[in-house]
UniProtKB/TrEMBL annotation:
Name of the protein: Shikimate dehydrogenase
This protein's pathway: Metabolic intermediate biosynthesis; chorismate biosynthesis; chorismate from D-erythrose 4-phosphate and phosphoenolpyruvate: step 4/7
Classification of source organism: Bacteria, Pseudomonadati, Pseudomonadota, Gammaproteobacteria, Oceanospirillales
Pfam families: Shikimate_dh_N (PF08501)
Residue ranges of every copy of the Shikimate dehydrogenase substrate binding N-terminal domain listed in the record: 6-91
InterPro entries according to UniProt: Aminoacid_DH-like_N_sf, NAD(P)-bd_dom_sf, Shikimate_DH-bd_N, Shikimate_DH_fam
Length: 292
C-alpha cells in the first residue's frame, strides 16, 4: 500500500482521498490518502507537517490553499510546471530530495480542451492571483489567451503575476472591481481562482450582471460544484467549466507523479474519462446537489 496526503486549510470535505483511492483500486494498487487540515490549528507549521509525512513513510502529498507558494519554496527540486508557475500543488519525497510539481497547470489545460476544444480563450478576467490563479493564468498562455485582466485584492500579488505573465509573452493588466464590471461584457472568459464561493467562503466574487452567452466561465471551486458564479453564468447562457473538471484532471496528473515508478501512463489513461464521468454525476448532475 502507498500512503499519500493533502495539506491545506478547510479541506474536511475534499474528494481527493476518494479520487486517489478509487483510481488506485481501479489499477490494483491499494492507496491510503490522508488529510492534514490546518483549519483551526494555531501557528500551523507547514514545513514541519511536510517533514512529518515524509518521516511516516508517505510517498508524497498534494498541497492546496493557502500553501502552494510555500510548497514551491520549500522544495529541493522543482519540475517544469513549478518553474513556470512559481507554485506547487504536489510534493514527492524522492531520494534526491523534496520534489515539487504543479498539476493545476496541466490539469486546467486538459479540462479546458476537453470542454472547449480549440476555442481561443480570448480576453479573460482572472479573479485571484494566488496558487491556482497563477497556474491557470500560465495555462491560459497555452490556450490562445489574448489578454489577462487580473482582479486581486492583494496589489503586490497582482502586480507580481502581471509582471511574470508579461515576461512569458502573455498580455496582462491589473484592474479594479469597477474596471472589471465595465469591461466584462466585452471580454470572452471569466475564471474564478479565489476561494470565494467555497463552502467555507460563500458568496460570488464579482458582479455577474455583465455575463452573457458570449462568455465562457470557469470556477476553480468545486465544493459546492454549483457555485453562485456558475449558477449566474448558466442563467446568462454562458458556457461553463466546473471546478470538478480541474479537480479530476489535476488529480490524475498528480497520481501519475506519485506512481511513476510502478504504473505506466498508458495503464492510467483508460481510467481518466470514467473517473471524470463519476465525479460529474456525483457532484454536478446530482438531482439533490448534495454536498460531497
Amino acid at each position: 500500500m502507498i500512503k499519500l496526503g493533502l495539506v491545506g486549510e478547510g479541506i474536511a470535505k475534499s474528494q481527493s482521498p476518494d479520487l486517489h483511492e478509487r483510481l488506485g483500486a481501479s489499477l490494483g494498487l491499494p492507496v491510503r490518502y490522508d488529510l492534514v487540515d490546518s483549519l483551526g490549528v494555531a501557528d500551523f507549521d507547514f514545513p514541519a507537517a511536510i517533514q512529518t509525512l515524509r518521516a511516516e513513510g508517505y510517498l508524497g502529498t498534494n498541497v492546496t490553499f493557502p500553501f502552494k507558494e510555500k510548497a514551491a519554496q520549500l522544495a529541493d527540486i522543482r519540475g517544469e510546471g513549478v518553474l513556470r508557475v512559481g507554485t506547487a500543488n504536489t510534493l514527492l519525497f524522492d531520494a534526491e530530495g523534496l520534489r515539487a510539481e504543479n498539476t493545476d497547470y496541466t490539469g486546467f489545460i486538459s479540462a479546458y480542451r476537453h470542454s472547449f476544444g480549440d476555442q481561443p480563450a480570448g480576453e479573460v478576467l482572472l479573479i485571484g492571483a494566488g496558487g491556482v490563479g497563477r497556474a491557470v493564468a500560465c495555462a491560459l498562455g497555452e490556450l490562445a489567451v489574448s489578454h489577462v485582466y487580473i482582479l486581486e485584492r492583494d496589489t503586490m500579488r497582482a502586480e507580481n503575476l502581471s509582471r511574470d505573465l508579461s515576461t512569458m509573452g502573455i498580455n496582462a493588466t491589473c484592474i479594479t472591481p469597477e474596471q472589471a464590471q465595465q469591461g466584462l461584457p466585452n471580454w470572452q472568459g471569466v475564471v474564478n481562482c479565489s476561494p470565494i464561493g467555497h463552502i467555507n467562503h460563500p458568496g460570488c466574487p464579482i458582479d455577474t450582471s455583465g455575463l452573457g452567452s458570449q462568455h465562457w466561465v470557469f470556477d476553480a471551486v468545486y465544493i459546492p460544484a454549483h457555485t453562485e458564479l456558475l449558477n449566474a453564468a448558466d442563467q446568462a447562457g454562458a458556457k461553463t467549466l466546473s471546478g470538478v473538471d480541474l479537480f479530476v484532471f489535476q488529480g490524475v496528473d498528480a497520481f501519475r507523479f506519485f506512481t511513476a515508478s510502478c504504473i505506466t501512463p498508458e495503464k492510467i489513461d483508460p481510467h481518466v474519462m470514467p473517473l471524470r464521468t463519476h465525479y460529474i454525476e456525483q457532484l454536478v448532475n446530482s438531482p439533490t446537489r448534495a454536498m460531497p
